[in-house]
Amino acid sequence: MAIKxxxxxxxxxxxxxxxxxxxxxxxxxxxxxxxxxxxxxxxxPRGTRESGPADSYALDGYVADLEELRVSLGEEQIDxxxxxxxxxxxxxxxxxxxxxxxxxxxxxxxxAVSEDMTAExxxxxxxxxxxxxxAAAMAALAREEAADYASPEELAQIWNDMAPAYxxxxxxxxxxxxxxxxxxxxxxxxxxxxIPDIREAAxxxxxxxxxxxxRDDFICGPAAAADAADAIPDAEVMLLDGAGHMTFxxxxxxxxxxxxxxxxS
Length: 265
Prior knowledge:
alpha/beta, Rossmann fold, seven-stranded mixed beta sheet, 10 helices
């Protein structure tokens, strides 16, 4: 299916796939100011309001959408950034079409869920048990894991309640950047019902890859980064201090400078 996108910034092209699954490219903002040096194509994947629903939300569908977009843009090779679930999509695309990706930015993402990642998540969340938002966030996380939602509005509220857990140090000033009113339930339900493991497939990636994540990311933190670096042949890892999942919001300068230096080298 033809996915829509917003174009932002000026400079060499960078295709940017958001997370969720179900979020639109609007969640990425300007990626910590990366639009100052790059033309960001902020993608609105299948399932979003902009691109519309799809029959399937399996990884191969997202990969096919990316390839259709690359062809429509007339680009022989692309620089590709995938954030969170979008990182898994980007890695799957780079594995399926290695000759089409010049450089890959694997941002706050994972190739599979391992026991080390689960243990890391439990430790990180337990360490924040004294925070005033913790109880509401844990209740929302339990609802998300149990697929206890039916409408886009319900799932959006669950995300809004969980959002503080995705930061190293939550501050209400982040609230406008993360609050949403609508999030399609179908993509996330399908993903959580059978979370993919693409570690073996990722060994086919030939593009130089930057694995970047927050040191305090409970869901895609150091364990996920190490797992990805072990699978992707030409990968370098950058862990950002003072950042959780939303690296480009908590540490925008470090995120922007690290990604730009990698893409420019």
